């Protein structure tokens, strides 16, 4: 086991991040192919089989395939914990950022089980997505931290910039939540018989778009202020978030005009998690290690 951050540790951090994003993509595929109840119980696929539900055909394999990916997440997370274990006292931040995904696999599996047992309740499905997005954010922080040193961090930007980043992050969270509610009111239920939240889809789409444009506006202001203050780390992640949001807007417009094709909805889901990660890192980077510790 390494006694410091090495290229192997950094590679594992990237793997943790990649697998967390991957599970959002595959989870979206389950929903968008109507395979959400391909396995109609949990933890088995059916009362007789762990793998196959004859009544659902290919949908059962899609759903079970997504379930088995959690084993990949767990293996990667455990390897990451092992990689930082020897120097855990010096880098407690890395220890916790690897332990959390290792433990979260079980929590996510339970939420997934509740999702199936409640017949794909749209609010439970939304919680499942929010949990996954939060794990993407923490995995992104893990990647960031394996490229920086340990130690306390202090506020390194002006109060106006800090407030602007916070406002952008809050609007980003509102945008993601509204997106979840909008999807919960639309046609992609994960199964033909699954319930919808019965909210007004058109009204939600409008409010969701307004929140998205507000996020873009405040993120752009944050990027401008950050560059003015030479807070380049904040500016970098604000800029990343702006790029993701521009793609999100294009995909969102295309979705609305093309009657919500599944592929575009899936891309929108993955981009939303990357946007959350970008805004989160911009907020994290408002605090920096003192110069004498960073040297």
From TrEMBL:
Organism: Leucobacter luti
Alphabetic keyword roster: Cell membrane, Disulfide bond, Heme biosynthesis, Iron, Membrane, Metal-binding, Oxidoreductase, Transmembrane, Transmembrane helix
Transmembrane segments: 12-32, 69-87, 94-120, 126-147, 159-183, 203-225, 237-257, 263-284
GO MF terms, alphabetically ordered: metal ion binding; oxidoreductase activity
Protein name per UniProt: Cytochrome c oxidase assembly protein subunit 15
Cellular compartments annotated: Membrane
Membrane topology category: Multi-pass membrane protein
Record's keyword annotation contains Transferase: no
Pfam families assigned: COX15-CtaA
Pathway recorded for this protein: Porphyrin-containing compound metabolism
GO CC list: membrane
GO BP annotation list: heme A biosynthetic process
Highest taxon of the lineage: Bacteria
